[in-house]
């Protein structure tokens, strides 16, 4: 339980605060419309459906403000950078931005549903009042017209149409109605194209449809401009307790002048204008970055369809384990795809290793393969760098790095950085021990990384710090021929697959054994566990971290960090 | 825009439209709105669309992500054969279903959503897609491999000269028999 608090405490608090604000807004605005005197006559026509429509509207205002913020990548990177002084739990919170974005989106969908249903009821009851179906007071209120001396309460002014069609007519002739329908449609299309199945298989459909949010926000801001939710505003006071039963005498007796109504000033824009500007700046920054020149330093095609690009960009500075977004207009004008950088900050270029995993990557690889020797590649836009969990590796005394397949890329950056740090001088690193686990299915993928590990191995031995870095390689896709090969070469000093001194393990790691070993070798240490790989493995590691952590400060504590594209 | 199977998005959209139609219909009936009969129709139509669209299709490349508990409905939908397999039929069906819902406000959103789903299905049909049920594959049991034949040749031996005992070196040539050799003579 205590371990759960350490690992999830900040998330919990954030969610509780967010939910608390939602509930507060809902209840507050519900009461304003359900109890407030100025809405007495409005409530007479609509009942509590008025409050049920306005309360979710307030929650919607708040959540539409929030939804743009988690996707302002540069803003988040900025916050991350300035929080370097503060606790790492706060920075870990920023890693969960997309999950928060989804949560807010679901809330918007739910509140939209409540809002729409309540307004459907409202329109129907306004219609009935206008048709004179209800009591005298309702009819009198509905008859108030929009002239020089009177202001209307009931937005339905027309009576000459077929009563069944009047609600539809109202919706399509008022600003609130039209914008409401359009933005709800946009919301539905955005949500259906964001379903996991669609997003994972056809990212383009998801991405392009998601841009309907522009129409959504535009419509949202002008949704209240018609001011059709009206409240009583009298200059000569009209006491409704006295006058509600004397509607026939309004205007003719001094205590009951004709009541005046007006709509409230639209407020949504005040909520969302800030984030909209922030997001606009975000996209402009992306555009500016895109226009900066990027030169190719080297293009390497590795086996198992892994493409390495080394790019040079002026003024580009990065930290370990960060990622960039790449855009290649020759393939697609509008698509930006994220890739973790495999170069170290000490190098004067940035490199990415790209695996063939879909349309865009396949086209990129085929373009590169057709390039003549030494030629520059197609124009490439680079946006970033953006920070993720791997930046925190050097904050922990002991780090366990787990990379599955191509998920090793952020750790390639870290290991290279270590190598550079040692090459220059003895650095003052907080980290004093690193355990590196690489899980891979096929041996081909080892090739480009094996060179790096070989250099590291040699370097460590030369400096006599061979036990700073312990790495274990796990070949999870072995078969009989591998086993035979290994058996025959059992006695050799270097590993038959990788040529490294460290032997390759076959099959998946036994995490109990690994965690036990780390705990034994590092008592009373704070261990950070970093994973770049599949969600299933994340669950396993998270559980093991909780299992092997002790709250006692004299014992080992494991913290889990995950990044997953 | 990539190798998109439009039917997948059409399916999500139609399922959402069915739910919206159903909800709008419930509101219309519960509030006894003018034209509530259209709302009652929408409840039935929404439910029907949801049931029809709930089972996901197998994708062209053979894989498929099932929705929970969709097996029962998969069998039902499959039973209608070409009517449910063909996406032109579905596009036409959804277009026809959505029209009556446009007559009252409560269901007009469901009508438009279903109309959009119908258009996406039309696009899917034009691209030649069709609905394939996701059913558990029946594994073909192969017969066990037959017993291998016994070896035809004797095991390899070094040439005869090496096997002949060296008379000069009786000690080196001797070896221990695992079993006692009894000379019967």
Automatic annotation (TrEMBL), chain A:
Swiss-Prot/TrEMBL keywords: Heme, Iron, Membrane, Metal-binding, Oxidoreductase, Transmembrane, Transmembrane helix
GO CC terms, sorted: NADPH oxidase complex
Alphabetized InterPro entries for the sequence: Cyt_b245_heavy_chain, FAD-bd_8, FAD-bd_FR_type, Fe3_Rdtase_TM_dom, Fe_red_NAD-bd_6, FNR_nucleotide-bd, RBOH/FRE, Riboflavin_synthase-like_b-brl
Subcellular location: Membrane
All residue ranges annotated as the FAD-binding FR-type domain in the record: 286-392
GO molecular function annotations of the record: metal ion binding; superoxide-generating NAD(P)H oxidase activity
Coiled-coil intervals, chain numbering: none
Entry-linked CDD domains: NOX_Duox_like_FAD_NADP
One BP term from GO: superoxide anion generation
Chain segments annotated as transmembrane: 12-31, 51-72, 103-121, 169-193, 205-226
Membrane topology: Multi-pass membrane protein
Protein name: NADPH oxidase 1
Species the sequence originates in: Hippocampus comes (Tiger tail seahorse)
